[in-house]
Specification:
11% helix; disordered C terminus; 5 helices; 5-stranded mixed beta sheet; mainly beta; 533 residues; 4 domains; Immunoglobulin-like
Amino acid sequence: MKNTLSAAVALPTAVVIALGGLLIGVPAASAAPAPTEQSVGLARPADGTVVDGTVVDGTAADEAASPAPTVGADPVDGAPVPGEAPVEDVPADQPGSGAPVETPVAVEPTAPGSDVVANPSASPSPAAPPAVEAAAAPGFTVTSPLVGQRLTSAGVRLEASVPTGSTVRWSISDGQSGLSQVADGAFSEAISLDGSTAAVTYTVVLQVSDADGVDLGTIDREFVVAGLPTSSAPTISTPGEGGRVEGRPYESGDYETGAIDVTGTGTPGSVIDIDLLAIVPATPWGYDDEPPVVAADGTWSDEVFVPYGQWSISARQGAFDADGFATTLPSREASVVVSVLRRVDLLPAAPVVTSPAQGGTVVGRPDGSQGHDGSQVFTIAGTGTPGTVIALYGFFPEGRAAIDRYAAAARGEGEGGGEGEFEPLIAGIDPTIVGADGTWSMTESLKPGTYSFAVFTLFDNPDQSFMSGPSNVVTFTLVAPTAVVGTSSTSGTSALAYTGAEGSGPLSVAALVVIGLGLVAVGYARRRTRRLS
């Protein structure tokens, strides 16, 4: 009987044990621990029932058939037990069901290639509540600009400490952006901004990636550029408005150009911005040389070169800090219109001597001024360009040789009069100016004798002086007037017959002055001749 009963309960017991082992190995998906189930006894026939010809003893059957308690084992739903009457299904949550209430366990599949291996022997453990992760701090620091920093110049220096080999991408709210590779870990870049009379707020964003391309984060900063004052306007001293300036020949590619000097005044330390605009002929041209800086004495100068023609030259000034950021707004412009010409186009026409005539004799008038005893006053006259100055060169006792040498030098055909570099004449204190009718005259005083001379036209403007070629060289003989015998109502002394007021003539010792002109070039000043290589 016992063998029969054991056989009857052996199969259900094995199934229960197997299912219990599988359920123990499944990890819990719920955050709450799985309940510990109580053991469940197998259904058996009622006491006194005959099974296979044997009367069932309830007490003995319980002792023989009851398996060891199993934790977490579930009966197999709907599985018939041999020799047992069918048991009516009762919902587990209803009283009298006789089955423990079980929480379903979900099993998450393991991702392919995962290093996590399911352990079927591990017991389920309560799941930890999900942790709230804090945002990771950027892997770099920004040292400039500071948060809310107020800048007094139109620009910002971006500075950051980043890992070596990083890439820094930056952008500013005005639309500027850039990218920099940082080799030494110190990022720095100066960014110019537009200045304004009112304060302007900007935002800069910096994003950094390390040498392997891993994003280290993003930092944004807001800063303010204060309103800037406006600079005062500079002045242009030379060339003057409407000036005619010789352009020194300057090699500059396809155009024949001339270099000129531009000077002016401004605020010490300010930078002068020069602009060049061609008027006639219209030539595309620009100015990109290093701008001049106003010196401590308030002056500035620069050399510019332009194609020959008429030009508008403009200048304005502004102040900048060490980073090149504007600390003032640009001033209004000062401008002049000038003509930059070749030297040959600037030279005035040579004057003409009409009196005395070449080879003629001139009767002088006694010079009665003190110290000019024996000197004779005479007049030289001619024609020329209205408004120009007439300068005389001559009266050398050795004849016209010195005159011819100087005239040749003035034409660029010789080494000049005397030793050294050719020296142009100057107008003097009381210059002779050609009248509006094109005529001119001057009064001279010399001892009687034969003399040679030539005259030149000097053209002065606010920028440069030019000297024409020589006039015709004139050789003449100066004689004293013939003495006449006469009577005087007062003293009875004789008098010379001449016209003109006494003491009104020029220098009396003209011969000495003439010699001085020839030997030491008195009457003309050395002007620096600038040559460009």
